[in-house]
């Protein structure tokens, strides 16, 4: 773009099917209010998505077929942020938008391994919708991961999640997809673990996870197996202000079997938490009040 060219009256800008130097372009649009980068075919220089604007109030980015290594947003007036990205290895995110009210953040990982223990991150979604004049606020973080015992990688899960916490959230939804040996299948005959099998990480039962703001947990398809019961205990120990736990049983668990009785025993120990148990059909079974 020739030097000296500016767009002093431009308020809405949509770009697609082009290579663009956003930093240079936005510096020429002093009154820009809405910026949309879609549909998906758009390339930014050096895989660097830089948006610096003192006037911008809405930003929409949909570039899931373009790999992004860096996101740098400085927009003090931004109120609505919608992002759909495909992330490169060793990406970096920096967002300064103190007035943002509505966030839809969806990032997909490629073949570069990022994860924790035997779980590899697939995609992350953060959703926040602050409604003016209402007390209700929808704010949740979804983490999708799948097991992969054949890819060696560093345990960088905590750092990766911190990159995505661009707004406060009150609900965490963890979706784990299992395959192969560690599928935790519901068949009666399950494949036995080999020596030093990675599906059983060392000492995880004795670790303490920092869940200091966690107030409610819901577990679906609970089978009452030993590792699942130990995971439940770990949540109780790691969440000091936990107020409510909801357990929805698997269809293979009856209210009279040993696994269900063990759930009752755990709930009785952690009596400071309201605990609810439901059958797989949705039928209410029992409650333990704090």
Brief overview, please?
With 290 residues, the protein is mainly β. The chain is built from 4 helices and 16 strands. The protein has helices at 22-26, 157-164, 226-238, 258-269; strands spanning 12-15, 19-20, 34-37, 43-44, 48-52, 58-74, 80-96, 102-109, 115-116, 119-130, 137-147, 171-177, 216-222, 244-249, 274-278, 284-288.
Task: Tell me what the structure shows.
The chain is mainly beta and 290 residues long. It has helices at 22-26, 157-164, 226-238, 258-269; strands at 12-15, 19-20, 34-37, 43-44, 48-52, 58-74, 80-96, 102-109, 115-116, 119-130, 137-147, 171-177, 216-222, 244-249, 274-278, 284-288. The strands form 3 sheets. Strands 1, 3, 5, 6, 7, 8, 9, 10, 11 and 12 form a 10-stranded mixed beta sheet that branches. It has a 4-stranded mixed beta sheet with strand order 13-14-15-16, with no helix packed on it. The chain is elongated. The protein starts with 11 loop residues before the first strand and ends with a strand.
């Amino acid at each position: 773009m020739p030097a000296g060219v500016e767009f002093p009256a431009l308020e809405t800008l949509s770009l697609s099917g082009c290579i663009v130097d956003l930093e240079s372009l936005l510096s020429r649009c002093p009154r820009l209010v809405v910026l949309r980068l879609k549909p998906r075919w758009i390339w930014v220089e050096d895989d660097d998505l830089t948006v610096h604007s003192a006037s911008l109030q809405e930003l929409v980015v949909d570039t899931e077929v373009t790999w992004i290594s860096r996101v740098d947003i400085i927009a003090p007036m931004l109120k609505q942020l919608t992002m759909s990205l495909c992330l490169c290895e060793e990406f970096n995110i920096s967002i300064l938008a103190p007035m943002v009210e509505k966030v839809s953040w969806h990032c997909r990982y490629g073949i570069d391994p990022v994860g924790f223990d035997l779980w590899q991150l697939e995609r992350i979604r953060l959703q926040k919708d602050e409604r003016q004049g209402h007390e209700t606020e929808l704010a949740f973080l979804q983490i999708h991961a799948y097991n992969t015992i054949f890819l060696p990688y560093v345990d960088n899960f905590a750092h990766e999640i911190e990159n995505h916490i661009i707004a406060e959230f009150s609900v965490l939804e963890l979706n784990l997809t299992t395959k192969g040996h560690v599928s935790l299948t519901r068949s009666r005959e399950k494949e036995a673990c080999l020596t030093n099998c990675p599906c059983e990480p060392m000492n995880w039962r004795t670790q303490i996870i920092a869940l200091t703001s966690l107030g409610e947990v819901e577990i679906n398809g609970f089978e009452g197996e030993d590792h699942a019961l130990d995971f439940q205990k770990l949540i109780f120990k790691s969440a000091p202000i936990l107020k409510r736990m909801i357990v929805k049983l698997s269809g293979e668990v009856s209210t009279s079997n040993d696994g269900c009785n063990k759930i009752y025993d755990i709930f009785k120990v952690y009596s400071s938490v309201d605990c609810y148990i439901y059958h797989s059909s949705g039928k209410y079974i029992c409650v333990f009040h704090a």
